[in-house]
Write a structure and sequence with these properties.
The chain is 28% helix and 31% strand. By secondary structure, it is an alpha+beta fold. Strand 5, helix 4 and strand 6 form a beta-alpha-beta unit. Helix 1 packs parallel to helix 3. It has a 5-stranded mixed sheet. It has a two-stranded antiparallel ribbon with strand order 2-3. The chain has one domain: 60s Ribosomal Protein L30, Chain: A, CATH 3.30.1330. The protein has 5 helices and 7 strands; from the N terminus they run ββββαααβαβαβ. The structure holds magnesium ion (MG).
């Protein structure tokens, strides 16, 4: 029998790296001289995850729900955006089976923060640590990411239908 209870989604995001902003990736504050520029806290990793979940459910993208013209989302922590998306996913009767995030950053070195980022992500998505992958790569000096002008992130999620969908 074909199992139709799984859906896959992909998301990606990029933000400029500038002085005078805190760096937040996967909801984890990371010590660095620069941070990501955006309307919210510009956490490109969580934005990619949110877009991947919305994509899996064919619900559009985060710009549709959290427009950067809306003052409500100014400087808001992206974890709140993701929590709203996770609620939408629950309303659709789905939960995350696993997520795989890749962050492309020339600097700072993210290896010391990978475990803490996975823990944050697992907590936000209500999954176990072994269901939440975060990887970090440089861009080999190429393009804007390689010149430390931006940080980019991609995310793939697999969703599975809940055995007992949440009743609204
Ligand atoms: Mg973004």
């Amino acid at each position: 029998m074909i199992d139709r209870h799984y859906r896959i989604g992909y998301g990606e995001d990029i933000h400029r790296l500038v002085e005078g902003r805190p760096l937040v990736l996967c909801a984890l504050p990371i010590p660095y001289s620069k941070g990501l520029l955006g309307h919210s806290d510009a956490d490109c990793a969580l934005h990619a995850v949110a877009d991947a979940i919305l994509g899996a459910l064919a619900l559009g993208d985060i710009g549709r729900y959290f427009p950067d013209t809306d003052p409500r989302w100014a400087n808001v922590a992206s974890r709140y955006l993701l929590e709203d998306v996770v609620d939408m996913m629950g309303d659709q009767g789905y939960q995350v089976e696993n997520v795989d995030v890749t962050i492309f950053a020339e600097e700072p070195k993210l290896a010391p923060y990978i475990l803490a980022m996975r823990q944050k992500l697992a907590s936000l998505l209500h999954i176990e640590l072994d269901q939440a992958s975060v990887k970090a790569k440089t861009n080999e000096g190429l393009d804007a990411v390689g010149q430390s002008l931006a940080i980019r992130s991609t995310a793939i999620v697999l969703l599975k239908s809940q055995s007992s969908p949440k009743v609204r």
